Amino acid sequence: MNFEEIKMTQTYTIKEVAERFDLTISTIHYYDKQGLLPFVAKNEAGYRVFTQSDLNFIHTICCLKNTGMPIKDIRHYITLCMQGTSTIEKRKLLLLAHKEKIARQQQQLRENMQEVDFKIDRYSSVAVKEEVAGEIAFVTQEKKALGLPSPFRQ
């Protein structure tokens, strides 16, 4: 047997799949109940038996989930996959739309990172205590002028 034949005859237990993808067994059961794993067969004893091609699908499911795709959209994607080649364009459009969402999230993360970097730089400043004390004084005066309590404990 060559390597390809060995891979095609290899099966995995739910525990092995959970460990490989850093998922809990209950998460895999949940995914199955949500219709994300229609490709997974069960053996005579009723246990799920995972193949290499199943692992490839699960890898994609994890990728989509980790990038914020809702379960209903992942289910739709998997359903399209199970329908064969006639749905390739629909799958592509679904993934392109998801990619756009990921790109927007990445931009927002970059902007948020800039704010975090700004704060870190500020707290590394020699004059940080004076700057923060000045801000506290400003906020306290602002709240007082508006008849609001100061949020600071001093």
TrEMBL record:
The protein's name in its UniProt record: HTH merR-type domain-containing protein
Residue stretches making up the HTH merR-type domain: 11-80
Origin superkingdom: Bacteria
SUPFAM superfamilies, per database record: Putative DNA-binding domain (SSF46955)
Organism: Furfurilactobacillus siliginis
Pfam families xrefs: MerR_1
PANTHER family named among the record's database cross-references: REDOX-CYCLING DRUG-SENSING TRANSCRIPTIONAL ACTIVATOR SOXR, TRANSCRIPTIONAL REGULATOR, MERR FAMILY
PROSITE patterns attached to this UniProt entry: HTH_MERR_2
GO molecular function, one term: DNA-binding transcription factor activity
Keywords from the named record: DNA-binding
